[in-house]
Amino acid sequence: MNKLFTAVVGLALSATALSASAQKSYTEGLAVYEANGMEGKVYFKGDSSATLIQSGPAAVKRLAFKDEYSATVIDVPVASIKWAAVATPGELEEELAGLPSFTFTPTSETKVINGFKCTKVTAKDTKSNTTYDTWVTKDISAPSSAFGMMYAKAGGFPVQFTMSMMGQTITNTLKAISDSKAPAGTFGIPAGFERITMTELKARSPKR
């Protein structure tokens, strides 16, 4: 569960394939990412995002609004688990403090990833002094809720990016993006879920 929780966070920070022949702007839609062997779907609208991951019997949804709200919703029918962990102000502050803080240096290297024309940018985490290769494209534009506010100043839409969080290194790759609208209720917590804190969620997660 801890590994899954980390993967969801990494993605929150995921349709039909998009032609990269001309820039297309999105104000809301669906971005599909692959991260360390898992697929995540990120519905975004304005400053809101909902990252959906299916891992075996577990359906996990990560909700975020700017840097003001964070929640993880877990539904495991076979185990009768319906948890909705909403970060308290203190937990949210701690979560944000643990995120990388990047500076970006553009390079002249280019390549095509999943049909997107990309340029390499060197991302440096000023907290750990670690650098990562980040590939961005100008073929598309969308709110940072589609990929994570940490990359808002990367110089384009991040198509492939790597970060270290909670002791794990996660590489996210954009597979596709579309203007598909989120189904009703996507950005909320359904009825019938037990509301807990993030601290309580971590305490309930099996230790690995």
Question: Care to describe what's here?
Answer:
This protein is mainly beta and 208 residues long. It has one domain (2-204): Clam (outer membrane lipoprotein receptor (LolB), chain A). Helices cover 13% and strands 50% of the residues. A twelve-stranded mixed sheet has the order 8-9-10-12-13-2-3-4-5-6-7-14, covered by helices on one side. It has a two-stranded parallel sheet with strand order 1-11. Residues 13-22 have low confidence and may be disordered.
Overall number of domains: 1
Structural class: mainly beta
CATH class: Mainly Beta
Which overall shape is indicated by the principal axes computed on the Cα atoms?
globular
Characterize the main sheet.
Answer: 12 strands, mixed
Chain oligomer state: single chain
CATH topology: outer membrane lipoprotein receptor (LolB), chain A
The total count of strands amounts to 14
Task: Itemize the secondary structure elements and their pairings.
Elements: H1 2-12, E1 24-25, E2 28-35, E3 38-45, E4 48-55, E5 58-65, E6 69-76, E7 81-86, H2 89-97, E8 102-113, E9 116-125, E10 130-137, E11 140-141, E12 157-165, E13 168-178, E14 194-196, H3 198-204
Parallel strand pairs: 1-11, 7-14
Antiparallel strand pairs: 2-3, 2-13, 3-4, 4-5, 5-6, 6-7, 8-9, 9-10, 10-12, 12-13
